[in-house]
Amino acid sequence: MTSTEKPDFDVISVGAGFAGLALIHYLREVGMSIKVLDRASDIGGTWTWNRYPGAMTDSESYYYCLMFSKELLQEWSWSARYPTWKETQDYMKFVADKCDMWPHIQLETEVVAADYQKDSGLWKVTTESGETLTCKYFISGMGMISQQIIPDIKGMDTFKGPIFHSSRWPEDLEWEGKRIAMIGAGATTVQMVPAMSEKAKSIHVFQRTNNFILPGMQREMTPEWEKEIKENYDEIVAKCRNHVFGMAFDDAEGRLAVETPPEEVERIFEEKWTGSFRWVFETFDDLLSDQRANDMASEFIARKMRERVEDPELADLLVPKVGDYPLFAKRPPMDHHYLEQFNRDDVFLVDIKDKEPIVEITETGIRTTENHFEFDIIILATGFQAYTGALEAFPIRGESGQTLAEKWQDKSASIMGVCVADFPNLFVITGPQAPFANLPTSIEQNAIWIAKCIDKMEKEGYDVCKPRKDVEDEWTAHVADIHSQTLMSTGDKVHSWMMGANIENKQPRVLIYFGGANNYYDCLDKSVEEGFPELEFEKLAS
Ligand code: NAP
At the top level of its lineage, which domain of life is listed (predicted)? Predict the structure, then answer.
């Protein structure tokens, strides 16, 4: 092996969303040349693909952003508690403009293969056009929820109207005044229905599993609120870094629901019912670990949900019963008046679990075991192959010639979600077995770790870093152990994407580190302090 071959770039990264921008920032700081490739025609990642009506963040705007520059935090103004996809994308363009990032970004470039070259220690990256580029470090910033799932429903290719996945919204689609079907009742559908019900002719939601739905309680940004945020950004940044979910939330002050009198539990639940995921983390510390506490929370949410649905039979279908499955075994959607839409006479719920499963899609609509429904448009809001999907969608081949997809066939394995044994000089932003947390926070923590690792290699003259298999085994076992102590480990029974249990013919698996994002960030920092003991560094003969 020799290190004489000069790569086209020090770093090639895939994905021009938050991860791509964070990588450009942190890797430029350590003197690397970096090219970010993306198949999309614009930057934004998730927020360039998910542009369906109603698409907006479920995290509050002022900390769902990159925090590397105090100046940028002060300069940008958010218009609301939860920004739309467009506003988030505009924010990313603002960052790219301000920080002169565009020269590092190459759009409309789909990567179709990445191969580690043992002899040179370089990665060869092949694009759809057949071009090959080489780099010393190959990084995935492809996003943890980006690879869409297209269900295998008989007759799908016979439908005469538009039929598409929610994350591939056709730009010129005319949906107003049309009869619309939505297959799936997850976070995406919960956002689409209220945004479309007024103008669609009708909407039918084909629901398999119902969800615990948390209220968003959207509100406009006011000058006073913005001032308060901007005066306190240091504290907000610190809160995100130190929170179990990477969000600028307060904690539950050690309260346990199971040790609190019922009337006090009710009072606290009610007092904190102010919108966002805050409610889960600011009320009690045992909601996600103790079934009894989880039942109390589920019961409260179910009651709140039922109050909004006029027809009790419909409420039975829309609202999970306590005991069906734990709150957070599936990621709860964030609601902006979804449930009320079913009180209209042009929004319908079709129970495809127990009452009338889908049989086929026809030229003109959807046939269930009981009915044939006619539609103009069918939207597949059927979710994503989270964490591993994008990394398995094209061959990424490591030192032994095995692809990531082959390696992860039975179970996922990584070191802190950021690197993988047998894949030298490959890094992943928010890969499998990283936490599920406020994504910009996790992305930046990963980018910092990667930049520091690369900086060490460059300063000390290393050509290759090899993630240690024994450390990978340890991390994988540690993540599985923590996972088994939470109620999220029951997600396989309700097709949760958090366990990959929404993918047909694939074994559910542990995909997420549930030990707290703050503790995970501590692990990353400790690794830096100790000189990256998870990796073996090598110099090639020159
Ligand atoms: P999802 O939550 O995984 O929901 C997919 C839906 O499709 C489920 O109702 C599922 O039913 C149904 N489904 C899947 N395959 C089906 C089939 N073959 N036949 C019938 N129904 C089928 O997907 P999503 O709504 O796109 O959301 C995914 C994640 O993306 C969210 O949890 C969230 O993390 C993220 N997201 C975030 C935002 C935001 O932050 N603003 C917005 C949207 C999405 P089962 O439940 O029975 O499997």
Answer: Bacteria
